[in-house]
Every structure is written in C-alpha cells, then in structure tokens.
Sequence to fold (311 residues):
Amino acid sequence: MIWRGKRGQRRLAALIALLAALMLLAACGGGGATATLDPVTTTTATTTAAPGGAATTSTTTSSASVVTSATTAPDSTTTTTTAATAATATTTTAAGSTTTTVAQPTTTTATSTASESPRVAASPAATPIIGSAERYAIIPEQSTATYHVNETFVGQGLSTATGSTSAISGDIFINKSKPSASTIGTITVDISTLTSDRSQRDDAIRGNWLESKKYPTATFVAKRLEGLPDTPYTDGQPLTFKIIGDLTVRTVTKEVTFDATGKIVGDLFTGTAHTTFNMTDFGFDPPSIFGVLKAENGVILDLAIQAKHTP
Fold:
C-alpha cells in the first residue's frame, strides 16, 4: 500500500505540471507565442524501520516538464512562474506508522525578451538631373557697368551724371535643357575705374564719397533666378527674368533685385540687368561739392553683358 500511495503522488504531480503547460500554451497560442518546457526533477525518499531496529531508506527520482518561459509579441517581455512538483519524503518508523514530509516547492522563473528587428528608413528618391549647365565667361571689353545719378549744378539745373567701367568679370551657367536650373557665379566690378564726363566728379567719388580708392571692388552674389522657363531653350529665344542676390559695396552688403533679359545666339550670350538703390543704404552720403554740385541719393545701376561659351 505504501508503494501504491507514492506512485499515485508522483502521477498526480506530473499530471498537474502537464496541465499547467497545456494551459499556458493555449493562452499564448493566439499570438504566435513560443513556450519552452524545462524538466523538473521530483525526488521521493522512503525510509522504513525494520522490526529488528534497522532502517532502510529508498529514494525515487522522477521528472516532469514545466513551462519556464513564453515569448509573445515583439518588444514585449513575458515572465512565467510555475511551481515545480514538490519533493515528498516518507519515513516509516514502525509498522503502521508513517510520517510524510513535504518539502517546500521550488519555483522556476524565466524571463524572455524578444526585440523587434531594426527598421531601415527608406532612402529618399534621387532628384533627376536634367541636362547640364554650360559655362559662359563674361567678356570685359564687351561688357559695362554703368551708374546714373541725378545732380544739380549751380546755374545749370538738374542733370544726370553717368559713369561706367568695363572692369567686370564673372561666369554665367546656363542649363539649356531646363533654363530655370541656370545659375550665376560671383560678378565683380572694379568701381575705382568708374569714369564720367567730369574728372572733378570722378576724383571726388574715388577719394571722398564712394571711397573707391580704399574699397575698389564691388561684388554681386546671386542667390536665385526667377521667371526662367522649365522647357528646353531654343537658340535666339529672348528671356526675361529676375536676379535676386547680395550686392556688396565698401563694407556693406544688401539684397537687391535686378530685372534682367538675355538670349543665346551661337556661342554668345548677351544680356542686361537693371536695379536701383540709395547711396545711404551702403553707408555713404550723396556727393556735394562746396554748394556747387549736389547729387541725389538714388542710384540706377545698369549692366550690359556679353559672355562667351567656354568649355
């Protein structure tokens, strides 16, 4: 009877463990979960005291599978704790007297974390390149930068002073496949070489007002072109557009807008650009010579450009 009782206890313990595993598998089955079954060892020790006073001890070891971990959805952590089958020791000290001691059940805890695979960001689509820009270099001897300023001479009334120079350089990059993708390089003008019809005026401008002896270079850096077409350019087609950029005179830089025209015939680009500004915008006052001559603040600046296609 003792043997049968111990065998029944072992069977009951194994059955409980199996039912726990099946219940956990059923609970995780809907989410694509995985379960790990770990063997748990159950030890049964039996000590029997013989009539002659000698005691014999027998130990029986059995095992049952216990669910120790389960993993569910990505980026989640599941901790499963299952009580293992308790080890039972039975000691018989005399005929008909049995003492049963149940050890504290062991607990198995397993934690499993599944990390989601890193996501790779989609690369942005590359911007298609339409055609290529061709370089046109400004021809100084065929180009001019000209200023126009209204002034008043005593006894002569209002007149317009005009001074110009051909000391101008820079490059234009024209995309014939898509003119709106064209650009303009830095344009440089040597304003110390501006010459009008009066040397007295020119000397006063170079030495006192514009101080072009000290600051001989004016530069224009285009930031964008507006109004050019997206369709391919046809040779001889006239273009009308705007050039927005930074004009630097002396030590002051201001944004200005040129109204421009241009066309290409063969390998030659010809164009014009026109803008206005005030002298005081760039930190100097209008010329005034001993009350004999007084200039207005406003300046008109015109560029006439010829540029040749350069490989």
About this structure: Residues 28-130 have pLDDT under 50 and may be disordered.
